[in-house]
Design goal:
binds BIS(adenosine)-5'-pentaphosphate, five-stranded parallel sheet, 218 residues, 8 strands, three-stranded antiparallel sheet, 9 helices
Length: 218
């Protein structure tokens, strides 16, 4: 099964992708996570991506399309995957389409999560991520048991550089200019599911699962 998560920064794409990955035993493929790892490791890709990410802009299409091509060729993607944070531009969507055709695969469902702007800001400024395992928390909505310590691995939690308020504004503007239009692109192709990201994480997850089961039974 191949799924795409769409939605603005902080909508809950990563949170839901992780739950779906556990439920369906297919990998979450997050371009943001892959790029952050490359930046942390100081690789050539990381050096190229860093300034774009720090400013809240998008990393050039060619780089991310190549990342996805390599990642989707990995053995763990053979039975499906959940794309989280990709595609983000029309060129990326078209690049993905070509790659899927070459692999003989289709997208089964595009899940678009919508959340009001004010809620997004507080989600991002309150988000804390584990430096070691990447687990995501929120200071108010899903806090760790011990302040600044990951429940899962004991690693330390940090505020992402791009979760500072000035960068968040630019990320929203970039989403509006370049990524929001993908809704129309995928609505036209069918298998598109829009869901409000306001509400309990588990309730949103169950609604997404219900939609997936309904298309799987068709
Ligand atoms: P990326 O890491 O993809 O960031 P993003 O799309 O901005 O999305 P986020 O990770 O911020 O949010 P999310 O929707 O996953 O929310 P989450 O589940 O964490 O990209 C970062 C940067 O990398 C980009 O700006 C760009 O520079 C570059 N990049 C990445 N992909 C690229 C691409 N394809 N092309 C070009 N450049 C690319 O939730 C947020 C918080 O809310 C968490 O604390 C969570 O606990 C909480 N939360 C989640 N759901 C709920 C709920 N229902 N109720 C209350 N709190 C909730």
């Amino acid at each position: 099964m191949q799924l795409i998560m769409l939605g603005p920064p902080g909508a809950g794409k990563g949170t839901q992708a992780k739950l779906l990955s556990d439920r369906y035993n297919i990998p979450q493929v997050s371009t943001g996570d892959i790029l952050r790892k490359a930046v942390a490791e100081g690789t050539k890709l990381g050096l190229e991506a860093k300034s774009h990410m720090d400013s809240g802009g998008l990393v050039p299409d060619k780089l991310v399309i190549d990342i996805i091509r390599d990642r989707l060729a990995d053995a763990d993607c053979a039975n499906g995957f959940i794309l989280d944070g990709f595609p983000r531009t029309r060129a990326q969507a078209e690049g993905l389409h070509e790659q899927l055709q070459a692999l003989g695969k289709d997208i089964d469902l595009v899940i678009d999560i919508s959340v009001e702007l004010d809620d997004l800001v507080s989600r991002l400024t309150g988000r804390r991520s584990c430096k070691d395992c990447g687990e995501v928390y929120h200071l108010t909505y899903s806090p760790p048991s011990k302040e600044d310590i990951c429940d899962k691995c004991g690693g330390s939690l940090y505020l992402r550089d791009d979760d500072k308020e000035e960068t968040i504004k630019r990320r929203f503007a970039v989403y509006k200019e370049q990524s929001a239009q993908l809704k129309g692109y995928y609505q036209d192709l069918g298998a598109f599911f829009q869901i409000s990201g306001n509400g309990a994480i588990d309730d949103i997850f169950e609604a997404i699962v219900k939609e997936i089961e309904s298309i799987s039974n068709k």
